[in-house]
Amino acid sequence: MRGLPKNFADLLTAKGRRILEGRDRTVSGALADPRQPFLAIEGALDRAKAAAVWPLLDRSLGPHLVPLSQPIPPDSITGQTRNYQERLRKTARVRTAYLERRRSKAWQAAEHIGLIAMTGSEAYRRFVEVIAGRALAGKFGRQVLCYGPGDYAGPHTDHHPEDPKAAAGYVDFHLTFAGPGVARQYLVYARDGHFSEDVDVATAGGISAYRLPFWHYTTPLKAKPGKAATARRWVVLGTFLYAEAC
Ligand SMILES: [Fe+2]
After folding, report:
1. What's the total number of domains in the chain?
2. Which of 217, 223, 73 is nearest to 148 (CA)?
3. Which residue of 138, 152, 175, 198 is most buried, as measured by CB atoms within 10 A?
4. Which CATH number is 176's domain given?
5. Separation of 2 CA from ligand 1 center, angstroms?
6. How many CA atoms lie within 13 A of 187 on its CB side?
7. Residue 197 — very low, low, confident or very high, per pLDDT cuts 50/70/90?
8. 194-218 burial, b for 16+ CB within 10 Å, e for fewer?
9. Is residue 208 part of a domain?
10. Which residues of 88-100 are buried (b: 16+ CB within 10 A; e: fewer)?
């Protein structure tokens, strides 16, 4: 694959296009349900096209990734003075490229492979809006993540109470492209106050959407035996604010 389709609709299957047109009742407005902060959709991305995306991202954006490592602070144990009083900030290990500045090398690489055009297409925005069931702001944030073996994100909420436009919530939209060496990686999230829900997000072409904030974590990526060389999960992430907040 030389580049991504300019129009997000061209990456979709018939099922994906039905969702885009608002004709799938299980998906339309799914995140407007207060009990459903998270939705994973299988079979909406064209399998063959999606399989070609991860090597494309690897080649073009791999060189522009920066490591993001927030380990468990040692004093979270040594500084603890009372039983059952442990506190853990957000921990994570993953590589990322923020696509914020047009003049950055990462942005230019993303533009070169059509990632900027595809995520800027009306169908991409519309797809997220259908799931959210609410009008979204025109401007949105782009980022890519790359999880390798052992990479993970510890429990966190993604709540941004200091940002007035995001304080009442926002939507993250993930396109997942896992290489053939990925065995598994789960998104675990809270429902009714317990980490009771999990979804395998290590798909070769998957879609997931998050109505943040809510408690969640991503388990360490596990490689298939002897397949560490292709055990990377790429995530193309779009962050959307609600229109009424902007
Ligand atoms: Fe998160």
Report:
1. 1
2. 223
3. 175
4. 2.60.120.620
5. 30
6. 25
7. very high
8. eeebebebbbbbbbbbbbbbbbbbb
9. yes
10. eeebbbbbbbebe
User: 139 lies in a domain?
Assistant: yes
Measure 213 CA to ligand 1 centroid, in angstroms: 8
Element (H, E) at 199: strand 194-200
Side chain identity at 135, as an amino acid letter?
A
Dump pLDDT digits (tens) for 128-179.
Answer: 999 999 999 999 999 999 999 999 999 999 999 999 999 999 999 999 999 9
What pLDDT is recorded for position 21?
98
* CA of 47 relative to ligand 1 center, distance in Å: 26
**Residue 199: predicted pLDDT:** 95
Inform me whether the pLDDT recorded for 246 exceeds 90: no
Residue 130, C-beta contacts closer than 8 angstroms, at least 6 positions apart: 19, 20, 22, 27, 28, 29
State pLDDT tens for residues 56-86. Answer: 999 999 999 999 999 999 999 999 999 999 9
- For 52, the domain range is 8-70+90-245
How far is the C-alpha of 218 from the C-alpha of 221, rounded, in Å? Answer: 8
Using DSSP's 3-state secondary structure scheme, residue 20 falls into helix
Distance 80 CA to ligand 1 centre (A): 26
pLDDT at 2 over 90: no
Tokens coding 140: 């949105």
Q: 144 CA to middle of ligand 1, Å?
A: 13
In a domain, 80, yes or no: no
